[in-house]
Amino acid sequence: MRDPKSLAVLLLVSVAAGTALAAAPAGESAEKRVDRAWRARENKAERAEAIRLCEGLVGDAKVQPSLRSRAFEIWIDALRRDEKWDDAVAVSERWRKAFPDDKELQVRAYYTESDLLRQAKKDPEAVERLRALIRALPDDKAVVVDAHLRIAGIFLEGRRYAECRDEAEKAMQADPENAKAAAGALWLQADAAYRTEDWEGAVALLKRLMENPAWKETDFWRRRDARFRYGDCLDRLKKFADEQAHYEAAEKAEPDPKQAQEYCLRAADAALKAERPDDALRACERVFVAHPEASDHWYAAQRTIADLHLKRGRFDEALQAARILLDAASDEGRVAEAARFLAEALKGLDRNVARANAVLNYQRFGPDGEDAKPGTPDDLKDPLAAMPRPTWPDRERAFDEARKKAGDDADAMRHRAMTYLYSGHPKEALRCFVDAFGRSTQRDFQNLGREMICVGARAVRGHAVGLDPFFAFVNCGPAGPDGKTGTADDLKDPFEPLLK
Question: Most CB atoms within 10 A, among 46, 100, 334, 344?
Answer without folding.
Answer: 344
